[in-house]
Automatic annotation (TrEMBL):
Cofactor needs: [2Fe-2S] cluster
Record family assignment: Belongs to the adrenodoxin/putidaredoxin family.
Domain (2Fe-2S ferredoxin-type) ranges: 1-105
The name this protein goes by in its record: 2Fe-2S iron-sulfur cluster-binding protein
PROSITE patterns attached to this UniProt entry: 2FE2S_FER_2
Gene3D superfamilies: 3.10.20.30
InterPro entries attached to this UniProt entry: 2Fe-2S_ferredoxin-like_sf, 2Fe-2S_ferredoxin-type, Adrenodoxin-like, Beta-grasp_dom_sf
Taxonomic source organism: Nibrella viscosa
Assigned keywords, A-Z: 2Fe-2S, Iron, Iron-sulfur, Metal-binding
Superkingdom to which the source organism belongs: Bacteria
Length: 107
């Protein structure tokens, strides 16, 4: 199992245990776990509605793609610890990581 933590917009934290080899993005896991994120473009790095802040474990994640960097550049609240959840694959690199939801909620 791969274990990582999600902090929602109110500061509440929940640890998720995800089976290894699931071949999903963090965005897909967040949606399946009923976190309230838009993910409007469906994982194409075109909308930034799955923006997360990496509180712990940033250095263990794979590097950002040019498409992800370009989209993050359009966000006024993006920082050096910002990532798009759709561009992070759930694998052992997420073990122990902590992510904070930043993107706007779905209504």
């Amino acid at each position: 199992m791969i274990q990582f933590t999600i902090e929602d917009r109110t500061g509440d934290r929940q640890t998720l245990d995800i089976p290894e080899g699931i071949n999903l993005s963090l965005m897909e896991v967040l949606k399946a776990s009923e976190y309230n994120i838009l993910a409007t473009c469906g994982g194409m790095a075109l909308c930034a509605t799955c923006h997360v802040q990496v509180l712990e474990g940033l250095d263990d994640l794979p590097s950002q793609t040019d498409a992800e960097l370009d989209m993050l550049d359009t966000l006024p609240d993006a920082g050096s610890d910002s990532r798009l959840a759709c561009q992070i694959r759930v694998d052992e690199s997420l073990e122990g990581a902590v992510f904070r939801l930043v993107a706007e909620e779905e209504y």
